[in-house]
Amino acid sequence: MSTKQEKRIAEYARLFRVKPGSKVKLGRDFDPRFKADVARKKDGAELLGRGIALLADYQARLAAQDTYGVLVCLQALDAGGKDGTIRHVMSGVNPQGVAVHGFKVPSAEELDHDFLWRYARRLPQRGQITIFNRSHYEEVAVVRVHPENLDRQKLPAESKGAGVWARRYREINDWERYLTDNGFRLVKIFLNLSREEQRTRFLKRLDLPEKNWKFSSHDIAERERWDDYQEAFSEMLSHTSTRWAPWYVIPADRKWFARIASAVVLANALVEIDPRYPTVSRAARKDMARAREVLLSQAPDGAAADPFEERLARRRRKAKRRDDAHETGLVAAGVSDGKRGAP
Ligand code: ATP
Ligand code: MG
């Protein structure tokens, strides 16, 4: 990829980044309807297509290199569009290299461990991208908004009480730093939905029979706590956007834009990792040269010694002709390769 493209991706990602150490307030600092310089959904589709192709290429290299892993943490309010974002952004990548884990109300077994245990068990392997659909950040979001969740965690008395949230922020930051230091890169995305857009999406779930299954009266009850969630998420963003694992607040009122922006943020992390295909050692190259000789000697009568090489050469010739035609203006005049009946 050209440095110009890389720069553009970095600039785009920076639009959504929460500056480490800054104190943010969701309602004041972020507009859920922001759509940068992408005017229409139609332009967005092309951009997303390009982003998805880019991600596929980088993921292949990440897997081949087998050195770094990527953990995407997706947080949002109900109906924020987490599922759709995962579906669209990851649509082009090899499913073998991706894992998705959702985190719901903790089980009895999970509550019998420290609060990061269940997340640590699902971390990516090297070469893999893992997506957390909800993440360890629920531990300072829903658990903070509903402190009875903290009671269920069976913490010793000295670990509860005043200072518990400040301590959790520190512990999360330390854990993420440890992961980053060991080759696991975090990409933290908060889908920022407006209260009005959430209302519309809930109504859609009621209005369309095929969406009814998504409706949950629990979501309506949680909506009553809107301000508390805004406050908890603002605190979370202010305390856990770090140099090694910054947060990105993605405007989520337009689903199509949220998907582009999420793809850009993930692509930026991969560009920064810059995974490379492993290079082949001199000994392995010698081995390959010998194998080549053997295969060439096995060509049946009348067959090309290396049919693949022939095909490649044909493709190159065709591409060159197309470029030449373009230069001489033939393409502009409507005389394309196809019309000439290219061989
Ligand atoms: P969808 O977006 O499709 O509704 P979801 O992620 O909201 O999926 P649900 O089963 O609807 O899945 O909800 C999961 C619930 O689990 C949420 O209400 C969330 O607040 C809760 N939850 C997640 N983590 C924790 C936690 N650590 N402690 C308590 N509750 C949690
Ligand atoms: Mg839900």
What does this structure look like?
By secondary structure, this protein is α/β, with parallel strands linked by helices. It has a single domain (3-279, 317-325), classed as Rossmann fold. 52% of the residues lie in helices and 9% in strands. The chain has helices at residues 3-14, 26-29, 41-65, 82-89, 108-111, 117-120, 142-145, 148-152, 164-181, 195-207, 217-223, 226-240, 255-273, 282-297, 307-327, 337-340; strands at residues 69-76, 98-102, 129-133, 184-192, 247-251. The two termini are 31 Å apart. The protein binds adenosine-5'-triphosphate and magnesium ion. Adenosine-5'-triphosphate binds at residues 78, 82-83, 102-106, 134, 138-139, 142-143, 149, 216.
CATH architecture: 3-Layer(aba) Sandwich
In terms of quaternary structure, the protein is: single chain
**3D shape:** globular
Give the N-to-C terminal Cα separation: 31 Å
Largest sheet composition? 5 strands, parallel
CATH superfamily: P-loop containing nucleotide triphosphate hydrolases
Radius of gyration: 25 Å
Bound molecules: adenosine-5'-triphosphate, magnesium ion
Query: What value does the average pLDDT take?
Result: 93
How many individual helices?
Answer: 16
Any idea of the CATH class? Alpha Beta
The structural class is alpha/beta
Give the tally of structural domains.
1
**Approximately how much helix is present in the residues?**
40-55%
Topology order in helix (H) and strand (E) letters = HHHEHEHHEHHHEHHHEHHHH
